[in-house]
Structures
1.
Amino acid sequence: MSNALSPLDTLGIDDDTLVAELVTLRDCLRWATSVFLAHRLYYGHGTDSAWDEAVSLVLGALHLPHDVDPGVLDARLLNVERHRIVALARARVETRKPLPYLLGEAFFAGYPFNVDERVLIPRSPIAELIEHGFAAWFPEREPRRILDLCSGSGCIGIAAALMLPTSEVILSDVSPEALEVARINITRHDVGTRVKAVVSDLFEGLEGQRFELIVSNPPYVDARDLAAMPAEFRHEPAIALGSGDDGLDLVRRMLRQAREYLSDDGVLIVEVGNSERHLIESFPEVPFLWLEFERGGHGVFALTASELETYAPAFA
């Protein structure tokens, strides 16, 4: 009979023993993948498999880029590096905390952002729209003013500012704590001359302002989905996830009020995820434009200022 430890057992031995066995980067990747599979973690905060999670953890722990030369796989790691990898893997399994929180960083639209438990972890398919410069609506020029509504970490608005260097961006969120993180990211990306953070309950702190583009990834998870979410999501701020029984309490307010803050040729882009079906059922007469994404994702709609005006009675 074999005396080999199973992946479920390996976290039960002390870190020094583990570190002595895990010599190379390849060793760490293999071990972490086995442990994550054995413990049935949930992946959905930037990765979608145990292998991808292990790669993100190990490379993140070593401050290596994801496109690192594969030749480093057999590099021997320092003792302190192996200890850090084991400690991160242990924390990931034992706390079910999402990896970006453990690393303090997430990538969005190709850019790194500081994240912690004051903000939602960036994962919106809106990143693809940013990478294309919102060209479907602004084919010849950049939008002059952009509002990132319910901005959290500021990833959408800051990435848009980096992609569109002549645009002015306002980050708006009801949470002062979230905007503390957003301001860290403004400084990190050196966009403070064009990006400002404003505490606001939807549009209440933005009176008199107009934007050519309002883009939002608001709380939209319905009560049923919220109750069934894996443990990893319990670490994210509840205020950034749920919004009423059907997930649309905030979105309904947004639809009623957005026209007043859009320029006449402006557009509203909003992510509602799985609550797409609730929105269609609530407003069957409204011609929401549901966007498609090359890398996957769903539940993002666009409405022009004129459409918001036309269907204002339905939203009221």
Note: The chain has two domains: 7-102, 105-315.
2.
Amino acid sequence: MRPATIRSAAFWTALITFAVASGSALAQKKYDTGATDTEVRIGHIVPYSGPASAYGIIGKTEEAYFKMINENGGINGRKIRFISYDDAYSPPKAVEQVRKLVESDEVLVVFNALGTPSNTAIQKYLNAKKVPQLFVATGATKWNDPSHFPWTIGWQPSYQSEARIYAKFLMKEKPDAKVAVLYQNDDFGKDYLKGLKDGFAAKASAIVAEESYEVSEPTIDNHIVKLKASGADVLISITTPKFAAQTIKKMAEVDWKALQIVANVSTSVGAVMRPAGFENGQGVLSAHYAKDAGDAQWKDDPGMKKFLAFLDKHYPDADRTNSQVIYGYGAAQTLTKILEMCGDDLTRANIMKQAANLKDFTPDTLLPGVKINTSATDFAPIEQLQMMRFKGEKWDLFGEVISGETATH
């Protein structure tokens, strides 16, 4: 064989060897702690007990959703092991439970942890550990801060965006409103209150009274009596479900006929409006981004049919009128999408990369026109809401889907 031919053969042999090696490398699976060929461990905390225990249904819904996924073969052949603990809506308890999830259970991510105080308490720890704090179950604006907290990403619309929408609505529809505000005395309430004042801007003097309450209080009755005495004709209720129901009921008891706007985290028909008494909730306003399973207008909706089929088979005891069930399903479906996008690269860095690369994703349960979009500089997946009014035993949507502005840091 001539030298040139030998060199050519050697070249092609080397090239083929390189190609085979490269193909092998490309096919190699990548895992961080919490992922294997057969399993992905997902950590979760929610208040199954305590003053915000109404939210515990979210964890139960997500558990049922992942059981469905597992029965259908898992995600890319891997089963989901969903480990959910009670933090009782207590920040110290949240820290304890999340440390257990990361250091003992060795989860890949902490998913959909609920509550602004709890998530605030665990945020620095998870970011220092480079563990994804994925799709946080609170609308605090600060979850959209990828430059300072690259391992934390929100899910639902921000409280400030929602509050600005209410301020704009009132300035247009009730320009002479005298507004009273009842808010929870923590990061949730204060974040929302800031958005409200920013929304009113130069007309912030429309807010004539403010009352804060502690989650440890058994009742907010005395706060309602004080706010009524202010002479306000609008009450904005920045409350979690237990206190939202108390507020609606107490306003009726003291015959305070102010227009009431309630935060969308407390619009559940089953957990808020029914306990408050349907007769007391007539005309209450809010805004939302998800469908209501009890609303007949969605009976032929393909997404709602899938949701109801899931409940029939995997969670038959669920209260279909409870919006927390809808919430848990939508969040779990979003996580499933991310894990599918990750393929065989189940590293924590790739989880965050894919979470920041959602384009017009539409879970079955979101309102038409509401889509999930993220980018490397936008960690606010849902930024749209539609106003709604409580009538009879359900919420009636009205107006257009409104995009709220979400500040990035």
Note: DSSP finds twelve helices and 14 strands in the chain.
